[in-house]
Write a structure and sequence with these properties.
alpha/beta, Rossmann fold, three-stranded mixed β-sheet, 13 strands
Length: about 300
Amino acid sequence: MKKILKNFYTLIPAKKVIFSFIKIFWTPPHSVYKHLYFNGIFNVRIPGTKGFKLMHHSTEIENDIFWQGLTEGWEKRSMKLWIQLCRTSKVILDIGANTGIYSLTANAVNESATIYAFEPLHRIYQKLKRNNELNHFHIVCIEKALSDREGQQVIYENDGPHVNAATLNQYTAEKYGKGLLNKRTVISTTTLDNFIETENLPKVDLIKLDVETHEPQVIEGYKQYIKLHKPAFLIEVLSDDVGEKLQELFDPLEYFYFNIDDKNDCIRRVDGIRKSDYFNYLVCPGETADNIKATLS
């Protein structure tokens, strides 16, 4: 029966038009709209900007943004913080960019910023490039992963058309992938230190880091310049082990830690890094922390 209904659903024409009309009057609950997906381009609105266009590939994240908006559904508190931080950042890195939602947001919010988006899986990189070209944005798209060494490494992914998670960490693939991350793909890697020298970047201001438990290795590859740059990080922390490793790297730099709960749309200052309440942390220097705390009061 499910297969029959799915086949019937794919035959319905003009789904985007129908859903856009419905959305004017009513936003269905997640339990309903998670089934109401389509393929095609839609507009993502950000107050005070032109927003951006996004290609919907019938994925959960894109569908959530279509129905709920950029700052009211998927990673809503993280996205609000990201928008706030992008406004005052000159050089922004999106590490683990996927199709580029965070990069696109950064470019829409701050047209003068220099933005680099790293995505190592070729078929996803092509979608990232397509979204960039669709908006005529100036995001520099790079088909590489960042790690603690230069060269080639194996990434663990699935073999479907959409990738919501891929990791360079075999342990993560086996434990958290639940058999889904069973495809081994050889990719190119570089370090942040090498990339900064190659691009001759005087400073990096803001980094989004989401690489499925490989985050400590990325920071290991940034040891030379992180002390000089002291950027703010929006960083995914999926386990206590990853959090502890990150804290060892950040503590000497006197960073501040904010645990983000995107489900309940809140953020709290903490003394250490452990598994996130939802997915992400804000890790930032004192000046940024003061600005964030001012918005919370």
